[in-house]
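S.,

Sequence below, as promised.
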Amino acid sequence: MKILVHINHFFGSNSYFKGKSSVYGKNNSKDYDKKKLVRKEKLSKVISSLETLSDSVSIRLCGYDQKSILPLDIDFLDQISNPTEIMYASLSEMEKDINNFDYFINIEDDILLTKATFERVVKFDRISLINEILHPNRIEYSLNNKNICIDIKSIPGWNYNQKLIFNHEFRSALNPHSGIAIFSQKKLKYAFQNSDIKIKNIHLYAGMDSAFASIHSCFILWRSYDSIDFHSIEHLDKWTQPPSDILSGINKYDFIPMVVPKIIKYIYLILRNLFNKFFL
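The prediction came back faster than expected:
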């Protein structure tokens, strides 16, 4: 099986987004060197895991010139206006090789994809509809080994559709993002013909998230629901919820438990029935 992988990579200063790949201060400082070393170790781990997926894996590092830790295979510096567009560019670049590979993986540089998860996707593709994707949950592991799906945490909620796949319950979540896209050749052709990737009408946070949401827009994304880590990938960086998201997520039920309005409604109905019984 021939696999093409595009790793979306960025490391350096920028004014468009903040994250573990963003660097502030002097490039020769101790903090910079330490952060660069940590980032390089994670990127090497990602690449090593991808190399185990098949006997024929072509891995291309995509990004901005002089904003990378390792040498780039594809430089988008002269093609896009800012680093948040790297995912759009690397996804579009894959279309040039659509007849040369069996599978296509577009992935962020801090995502660990195991062979077991990839093989489960391949197995599912043999029996699935053209518009179905077995979408991995992006998991973080804490010090006490508690696993958290950060994309379900950032945008909570599930749609009503569900399906039993490999003896597990799968559902589609409100959040389409996992920091990865895995397509067979057939499904990638379907994506370029039917998704939002070329018109870019879908906006989900920054351009990185929007690009993955766009390319998946014509698919049902099945996530493992009864066991979130059954079909999953590991996020090597720790996600930090933006303060604005915390404030916007506050509602009246954070101050008044949902049971209180129900008790008040129950008392009201009892009193109304008693009034109707004795006075009307």
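The mean pLDDT is 86.

Coffee later?
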